[in-house]
Design a protein that fits this description.
Length: 332
């Protein structure tokens, strides 16, 4: 049974990773329906929050049906992080999560995200300050280390636990790797083997099938798994893993109707929440996975990712339904 403070997540929970322009309310709604146990917002700049920047403040939007949900922040300055923690608390999530894992250059160059892996003492102090400035349970998402020569995550996890975090999620790559190569969960397993660790440890990286989820669960002993890229345009990954964990059997892939209905609802909510232009553009990255494995889908998908008129997009989605309802190539 995995618990973050007093939040009971059940046996072997599945978490939706915080992903910029992906894990927004429209997508989170679909993931929740498909069995995701806990979700995180897109990561939010603390500097944007304390300056009341519209885009940052909007990311605080959470809905009751999403709970439990965590709001994730990133930053490098102690005062800003502490002030942002107060703002997050007012939004009333279940958890405040600190991003110490984002590898993107514009974040890292400010010593935020994975950048702070170059200064572990500062990472611990910053975490301690946030823990002491909020009543919310604080969790951390991070990576194995800055590079191959500085994979200190076993020590880091223990130090962060000692200053009060209630769970840790670890992506099995270094910052230098970005998202390349294969995620290495070996050190994540070693954290679980550390007798001093008592908070939940969630593994993240390369989980793209129910079989792999169960294999890594058994091999590394993690308390749960955080799913990122495999969920983009495919919220059904959560129900498929849950079913396989419970029964050892693979579910059939979602039907054409399920895929089209999900894509339409996703787009509708996206436009409602972000406005027409941004809602359409940020939805585009999902279409590949929504319709992966469909024969000759490329020109149709090309229209979906270039069209700006929502009516045409909806018509195209219905065309997919009509064309493929009897002719779906099995998803590989």
């Amino acid at each position: 049974m995995a618990k973050i403070a007093n939040i009971d997540l059940g046996d072997f929970p599945l978490l939706l990773a915080p992903m910029e322009d992906v894990s927004d309310p429209p997508f989170r709604a679909l993931c929740k329906e498909q069995g995701c146990d806990m979700m995180y917002t897109e990561f939010i700049s603390v500097e944007g929050l304390i300056r009341d920047a519209t885009k940052s403040v909007q990311k605080l939007d959470i809905y009751d049906y999403e709970r439990p949900v965590g709001i994730q922040i990133f930053g490098a300055e102690h005062d800003s992080m502490m002030r942002a923690a107060e703002i997050v608390e007012e939004a009333q999530p279940e958890v405040l999560d600190i991003n110490f894992g984002c590898p993107v250059k514009k974040v890292v160059c400010k010593m935020a995200g994975a950048g702070i892996l170059q200064d572990l003492d500062k990472m611990v102090r910053l975490t301690s300050d946030v823990v002491n400035s909020t009543n919310l349970p604080v969790t951390v998402k991070t990576r194995l280390g800055w590079d191959e020569n500085s994979k200190h995550i076993v020590e880091v996890a223990e130090r962060l636990q000692d200053v009060g975090i209630k769970a840790i999620s670890i992506h099995g790559r270094t910052r230098k790797q970005m998202y390349k190569g294969e995620a290495d969960w070996t050190l994540i397993g070693k954290i679980k083997e550390n007798p001093r660790m008592h908070i939940p440890v969630f593994g993240n990286g390369d989980i793209n099938s129910p079989q792999k989820a169960v294999e890594y669960k058994n091999r590394y002993g993690v308390d749960g798994i955080m799913i990122g890229r495999a969920s983009i345009g495919y919220p059904w990954i959560f129900r498929e893993i849950k079913h396989y964990v419970k029964t050892g059997e693979l579910l059939a892939p979602p039907t054409v109707d399920e895929r089209v209905d999900a894509a339409k609802r996703h787009l509708e909510f996206s436009i409602l929440w972000k406005g027409e232009r941004l809602g359409i553009v940020e939805m585009r990255r999902h279409y590949t996975n929504y319709f992966r494995g469909f024969r000759d889908i490329k020109p149709i998908r090309g229209l979906l990712v270039t069209e700006d008129n929502p009516s045409v997009i909806y018509e195209t989605l219905e065309y997919i339904r009509d064309k493929y309802s009897q002719n779906l190539v099995e998803v590989s």
